[in-house]
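Internal QA ticket QA-208
Title: Verify multi-chain structure generation after dependency bump
Assignee: T.L.

Test input:
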Amino acid sequence: MTDGYVQQPGSSTDVRVDGKRVAGKMSFNPPGSGGSRPEMAERDLDFIPEVEGGKEAQPAGHHQHDKYRTGTTVGKRTPLVDGNAKVTGQAWYGDDVRLANEIIGRIVRSPHHYAKVKSIDTSKAEALPGVLAVSTGEDAPQRFGVLPVTKDEHAMAVEKVRHVGDLVACVAAIDEATAREAAALIEVEYEVLDAVHDPKKGLLDVDDPIHWRGKYHIGSTNVQKRVFQEFGDRSKLEQARATHHGKWKFMGVNHGFTEPHAVVAHWDPNGRLQLYTPQQVPHYAHRALATVLDVPMHQVNVIRTFVGGGFGGKSDPFPHEMCAAILARKAGRPVRITFDREEVFWVNRGRHPSHIEVQMFADDDARISGFEIDALIDGGGFASFGHVTSYYNGVLATAPYELGSFHYTGARVWTNKPASGAMRGHGAVNTRCAIEVGMDDLAEKLQVDPIDLRLANLLPPHSKTITGFRITSNGMRQALERVREGSDWDSKFRQLPLGKGIGIGCGFFISGSGLPIHWDPNKFPHATVHIQIDMDGGVTVHTGAADIGQGSTTAIAQVVAEVLALPLEMIHVRSHESDTSPVDLGSYSSRVTFMNANAAITAALEIREQLLNAASEILEMPAEYLVLNDRRIYSKRDPAIGMSYLQALHKSQEDKGALIASGAYRTPPMGGVHKGAAAGLAPAYSFSAYVAEVEVDVDTGLIKCTDVWAAHDCGKALNPLAVEGQIIGSCHMGLGQVLSEQMVYGRTGHLQNPNLLDYKIPSVHEMPNVTPIIIESCDPEGPFGAKEAGEGPLLPILPAVVNAVYDAIGIRINDLPLTPDKVWAAIAKKMKREDLADSQDLPVPRIDFSELQAKIAKRSAEHNNRDGRRQRSEDTDPYINGVLFGFDPSIPPEEQDGDWKISVRPDSDQLESLGLAGSAWTKIEQRKMEDGK
Amino acid sequence: MLMPPFELHLPNTVEEACAIAADLLSSGDEFDWIAGGTDLIPNYKWHINTKPHVISLTKIAGIDTISMTEIGCMARLSNISESDSVHPLVAEAASKVASSLIRRNATLGGNLCLDTRCFWFNQTEEWRSSIDWCHKCDCGTGSDCRVIPNQNTLCVATYQGDIAPNLMVLNATVHLIGPKGERSVLLHDFYQLDGMTRNILEPGEFMLKITLPEDIADWTGSYRKLRVRESWDFPEAGAAAAWKKGDRGTLRVATTALESIPRRHDEEVASANGDVKAICDAIYKSTKPVNNTSLPPRYRRNMIKVLVKRACEE
Amino acid sequence: MVGEEHVSMIPIAPNNVWRAKVNGRAQEILAPSNAILLDVLRDKVGCLGVKRGCDMGTCGCCAVLIDGEPRLSCLTMANECAGSDIISVEGLSNGAHLAPIQQCFAECGGSQCGFCTPGFLISSQALLDKNQNPTDSEIATAIEGNLCRCTGYQQIIQSIQAAAAIHRGDESPANPASDAHSDPHPSGPD
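Actual output:
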């Protein structure tokens, strides 16, 4: 051992008498390893789990990562590591990339809803001085799309335009004015076709479907995808004690991120494309670019800029990204394209406008004997993520409640509108709203408290849903109990005066999609993280995780810092370039924290092991006797025996140089085998429960949401500050959808509000006071127990508000958003029906508990006990959906009940009885038609 | 988004402004006035009725007076709303306009001369070309009105200013100036029923200021604005009422955002003999909003009863 | 397709010299008569921290201080504010340290994706310049013209309250993050 660390062994005495340094031989300034703290911090026992000798309570049990907790950052309120760049204006978003010699691109868009492109004359545009490149669909014949199964997009129209605003051609010129002028000079001859605007009409056979899928086309309709699922025993539905029937209409909503799309494309002198884009999912853009541009993937470097909000709206590969690359290739100069806000709406990919019908049944024991869901969703002009959305609208309703049966029919149709796609809470939000309002109605009909009804019907931790999803950690029960307590529910529900109301809603969402859509999940990982530490001791983490403001970079830095016990500022996350980032599926389906942080932990553990081995060698002490804490490695028993992190690092770097580790995450094998079983499958699920209080002005119909108690089970809050930010932000976005936001297509099918004045995102004045409540159920497979917090928290706010409005005025409105005109019309209708002259005489719902209330309270108390034991792994018996109905969990239910069905196609005798979306099943696929077409 | 090309003129005095206007008029050049720009600039960015010349009033000193009886055209709404010396009803109305950021730019003159609005019209050039234009900005095509098809004689775009109805019930006078000199009219005679004509401003004229009666401090009232969000949104309907303190017989009511002009409802008030409900019903009968704002016209029309009732509350 | 209807975009050559002080530095820029301040700041001065979110005054991302007042640069003619003193987000911190408002936005969750942040900082700074003891409702009015899609505004209000506390000289901000490290130049001049 040496007395203090030196850069070169044996040189510690080489200090000049004048005190100045000898070149290259200066002692490191101990600890000198970075960070702003000059001295080692004490171990922070408040953030070290009980099981490891710390003070952090673990009511939900222990975790496999507990032993790697160092009390450094996990669980602490941590500012975003890129926050300083953002508050100083230095964060560089799409339009902030300004390359030398750049020119400006502009897109020519369709003025028609649906038309054949007969000819395009670009000569006038090309003749305009200053125009450097013009391109049309001829330049990019390859199809692309975010999902490999539904590639139906082109960079620019090849044969047809499919909505107003669809891309037809593009131009690049020396400045924006010239580009805009040139775009206007492009002359396109169209043959206008009959457009479809109403999704119901999309179910019908037409002469010219918006896309043609050949032998897989369903009839000659505009049905893009249809789903049928039937699980369980529906024969008992007839004996239901209470039923609910809800027919819902949901308007489409847009992500409304503040940064409009922008892209910069530059073919560098080596012929490689450098593409700068604010992408949530750079890897899919990477793949699509290679396809469309017809170059190998390694010839493209996708550089993710800072992303000014995504919410799902920046996760498709976009045609304008292709256009920029094509123009740049033609012009030989970097091309920048920035969207006007209107163009953002034309690209859309927002939440699907939907018609959803739910029927729900409860039996004499207040058990949920069945959900019947029919969802017709309006996909707009392209498939986007719609294949998945079609499933999610049903399958994500199979929890958190235990069901006697589940029946779902879904269809997604193409219409001549901007494409719908993935948006925060993808596919789950609308159905969840319908289901949760249905639960409220069932509770009312059973004369029980809706929170108690939920508590008595929850699936426990470590169980399986009716369609085979594997539930691991489950904090639903605590979430419900905490919001009940926080909101003082029991003294408010059904007791508030007219115009004031309180309502409950729950949520359930995936934490990462189990299936990587481009490859076999059993072969390749979902996420890979590389860690590199060179002599300076700084830790460079390479990841493809796309930080879109949710703080994924911070989360990755945190887990690495935690494992290595280094200050956060020593962790440098590099995630912008595909050249240096290992492949990652990006920021969608709430996967980043779960998958990337897990991969990062794996990589960090490899580094940790090398450091401990080196320290063990120097100290001549077994590695398991050592502890890491704030840039030091020392003996557990005597902290004086130890060394700096740098010393151990340099020891381990001997001979091989920089330490490098790669960590990967892959989902465990899981799920059923039926068609579509992978949709909705996730390694973990989040749960949430919100209580909302509203005030309704009964004269104007204006709703003001005043307070929200928002409990969300995120497994473990790696960063409570960020989790709370996600919860409150989700409230805001969900509140927009339930109260004011809608994409309005008018009489002529034109989008009437493609701007932020008429598309009404709530302002600061519309925000309620949100009390975020973090539930930590400690997910066994999550990084330090964590699971998602970005999307699930959006779900409950919609039904909570709708239910609160019912509590306030006694009217259920099944048509979102609840704009004041709709509320007023509903009130006026009721007053007319009940012959009321004064709105102040409106009856307010009150509750008179039935005998079931005591029964379910007793059951939920028993379940509370059961769930606690299962959560803490004191009870590890298998549990499947159906146990509540008396099934033996060790035998498949279909073997115990002859009426138990598992079916993904309707029988021919069922076809007649299917709902609106289900009617898509009455059409025959082209390949199954006898005569063909 | 880029502004279409135009020449911005920045006169330093009212006289200079009038002279520039006179010059442009005599040479046949079209032009617009710009005050705060919060209405004109978005329209220009969307290429709506752009002109090759724009005369700015920002550099003219002394036309931003704010007092109980006089407010200059260039008085910023933020200053009006925060001022202790203006009539409280005017301050209240100003504070309800758009957002605090927009109110920093927006001016009284601009708000009173606000262009009428319609969702078939307030759109980009590309958007409007996709509906083949509309009557209000037909770009020489002679297009139909898209709100009420098969007519292109009247523009039914909606006037959505907040302040006008309040100044109307306070009996404000507007002072106009132009190359032909100065003139004054009562504010409720200023507007002209057509979404394109809008008001009585002659070519080259602009609104210099408004004045209020000497006894205006004795008047009280309130303004009710219907909007989905408490920021940004234009009124979907609005009602202002004012009366001399202690004398309900002086009650005046005006509404906005229901048709192409704001309107004072003297006849309806007179016929109701002080019964607020009768006033509401009468105004409900005499107004017929059309479908060109965010909320449906039937609802807006019904809401006027609620708004007027609430505005008249003491 | 060009027709009678189309408004020609080819501009007249820039003929005006626009002079102003931007973040303390005198600028002389050749800009057309009809230039919008936002375009001049982003494309000519290089203040890329001034964001273009909607270009129509409805998002507040482009707000800058003009002679101390928060203004929407997308709705301001550049030539109307020639000669003014303009501060953008880049000019909020003087020297090596973050301004309190910047520090608090970074520490209290006031900034998520960060795109709206420059505008919020400008609106908040303007408020704090006049009122170091704002109520939540005064803060709401000050930021009502700024749109944030990420935070739901709550942590923004907390950030502004925390900055107000620093401005007042209160000992500790209302809601400090436990592991704050937001000063990028810890050894810089005070």
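Spot checks passed. The domain at 16-91 of chain C is CATH 3.10.20.30 (Ubiquitin-like (UB roll)).
Status: verified.
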